[in-house]
Write a structure and sequence with these properties.
0% strand, 75% helix, globular, mainly alpha, 16 helices, single chain
Length: 377
């Protein structure tokens, strides 16, 4: 089993809310003008979870990096490759000439995890894969995070200062380099979108190093989380100019999501935490990755049928239903079997290694879990 933080339903609930909000934005639902802020919530959650994984083990940094990258590859690649394999023939049928070339370029760069750079500098296509730039962005953060966090994991104060400094620089670069395009290069590139992920890493550092907070801070968290949830809702439904988002909105959204996560972690008994912890939210959260992969192709394909024009709310309902169903099928028939296969291989390898070691130097307990952990895989 992977070494991971204790299961926190409230974090699952926030991820589910972010997933629903992203779909609403891509459907152009009325009054959802700021649905793009949900990406910052995903980034904060990813930063926290990756930060805990990197900072908790006590093994040598090299072993932690190998385990971290392997676990991310097992999590991300199988469902992504299956989706691309199924969608590519459809894209070939529906597109011709330049559109098809762009689709192929996007598909290749998606596998290589640099599709956000492709969108920023090369392709401009509506081929059903436009949403995958954010997955590439997260993968780039997964690759970069170990460099800083493992190098400074024994110097938490310096690590915290570096995380805050880089987050501030990223937010500042976003504000000053914005070119006026709502979804241009500034929107998709890592150096201008790193602050949310780094806020999550900072929260992970605090949670790993300090399991309890001062009483005054702990008591204030529920009220702060309530205000944060209300403010995020306002940002989502209020039509604000793009300049606000790039100057203040994205960084504010990341900070507010971090406050909500802190409340969920340190005050799981509070009203905001319970609001984010329904069983349905946990169920949906486990299927958000597959659902996210498939929802935008569904949006595009259904729009081609004319359903959006002729029966908009039926189009909305079918899109959500298809996203949930495909996310469930992707997890059940691709994600879980591949993860189980990898775990079985690790068990077999660990058992074989233990037998060799026992034969040469006496019996030793087999350890096949992540570096520095006491868990078996």
């Amino acid at each position: 089993m992977e070494s991971r933080p204790s299961h926190v339903p409230g974090l699952d609930g926030l991820r589910a809310v972010a997933f629903l909000t992203v779909i609403a934005a891509h459907l152009n639902l009325p009054r959802i003008d700021g649905g793009f802020y949900a990406l910052d919530w995903f980034l904060v959650l990813s930063g926290y979870l990756i930060g805990v994984r990197l900072l908790t083990p006590s093994a040598p940094a090299r072993d932690v990096v190998v385990w971290h990258l392997r676990s991310r590859a097992v999590r991300i690649l199988p469902e992504l490759l299956v989706m691309l394999a199924l969608l590519t023939p459809i894209g070939a049928y529906l597109m011709v000439s330049r559109d098809w070339q762009d689709f192929a370029l996007v598909a290749v760069s998606t596998v290589g995890s640099f599709v956000n750079f492709t969108f920023a500098f090369a392709a401009d296509t509506e081929g059903g894969l436009n949403h995958l730039w954010s997955l590439a962005l997260e993968v780039q953060f997964y690759l970069a995070a170990p460099v800083l966090m493992l190098a400074l994991r024994r110097r938490p104060a310096l690590l915290a200062a570096c995380l805050l400094t880089i987050a501030g620089l990223s937010a500042g670069l976003r504000a000053v380099t914005w070119d006026g395009k709502p979804y241009g290069a500034t929107y998709v590139l890592p150096h201008t979108r790193a602050d949310g992920f780094l806020f999550g890493c900072l929260l992970a550092l605090l949670h790993v190093r300090r399991r309890s907070l001062p009483v005054v801070v702990a008591r204030a968290l529920p009220a702060a989380a309530t205000v944060s949830l209300s403010t995020l809702a306002f940002l989502v439904v209020k039509h604000l100019p793009p300049r606000f988002a790039y100057s203040y909105g994205f960084v504010l959204s990341g900070i507010l999501a971090t406050v909500i996560c802190a409340c969920v972690l340190w005050r799981p008994d509070s009203v905001p935490s319970r609001m984010l912890s329904p069983r349905a939210g946990v169920w949906l959260s486990e299927r958000t990755y597959g659902g996210y992969l498939w929802h935008y192709p569904v949006v595009i394909l259904l729009a081609l049928t004319g359903l959006k024009r002729n029966a908009y709310w039926a189009y909305v309902a079918v899109t959500y239903g298809a996203a949930f169903a495909l996310g469930h099928l992707s997890r059940r028939y691709v994600g879980l079997p591949v993860a189980a296969h990898v775990r079985d291989r690790q068990r077999s390898y660990g058992a074989a290694t233990a037998e060799v070691v026992a034969g040469e130097a006496g019996a030793l307990p087999a350890h096949t879990g992540p570096p520095g952990s006491s868990e078996a895989t």
